Amino acid sequence: DISLFDASILEEIDFSKCHGEYKPAISHKNPGSNLRLRPLSSGDFNRGFLKLLTQLTQVGEVSKKQFIERFNSMKASPGGYYILVLENTETEEVIASATLVVEFKFIHNAGARGRVEDVVVSKDYRGKQLGKLLLDCLTLLAPKVGCYKLSLECKDPLVDFYTTFGFSKEAQQNYLVQRF
Ligand code: 16G
């Protein structure tokens, strides 16, 4: 198995600076019994990673070859993709995931913008503070990897959740989209 990015950057996260309150206390180093937080790995195709993503949106038919090709292209963009997963170490299933995408810029002193993407916790694992844990990790990671701002898109009922991590609606900014 190949790791998408060097896991040591997760070790360096100072979780005492997190936004969420955890009862019982969990952290990235100890996310709960039989759970491990780590970077996405090339072997996660066989651990239900894509099936997990179907709980967020449409995934379609993605073959192992396509998964590996996409994984390799992300890995070939160093510092660009931080996909975190939580694995149930007993069942060896990926049960939650969240992504920090880093978009490299010329503006802001050749800075970078971060985006939180594809946050999903499997149905059976909700209510265990895992979404909160993933969000805290990504919001602590973003400035560490050079992001001058971090943004996300979400549905109305989730705005309050994301607000607790320091996100707010920006005045005079709209989210526009077109679909193909
Ligand atoms: C949500 C997700 C986004 C994801 C999209 C998929 C978060 C914070 N936001 O907006 O990352 O890509 O849903 O929906 O996780 P779509 O299939 O309609 O694009």
From TrEMBL:
Boundaries of every N-acetyltransferase domain copy: 35-180
EC id: 2.3.1.4
MF annotations from Gene Ontology: glucosamine 6-phosphate N-acetyltransferase activity
Reactions it catalyzes: D-glucosamine 6-phosphate + acetyl-CoA = N-acetyl-D-glucosamine 6-phosphate + CoA + H(+)
Keyword Nucleus found: no
Involved pathway(s): Nucleotide-sugar biosynthesis; UDP-N-acetyl-alpha-D-glucosamine biosynthesis; N-acetyl-alpha-D-glucosamine 1-phosphate from alpha-D-glucosamine 6-phosphate (route I): step 1/2
GO annotation (BP), single: UDP-N-acetylglucosamine biosynthetic process
Family annotation (InterPro entries): Acyl_CoA_acyltransferase, GNAT_dom, GNPNAT1-like
Record keywords: Acyltransferase, Transferase
Family named by the database record: Belongs to the acetyltransferase family. GNA1 subfamily.
Protein name: Glucosamine 6-phosphate N-acetyltransferase
Taxonomic lineage: Eukaryota, Metazoa, Spiralia, Lophotrochozoa, Mollusca
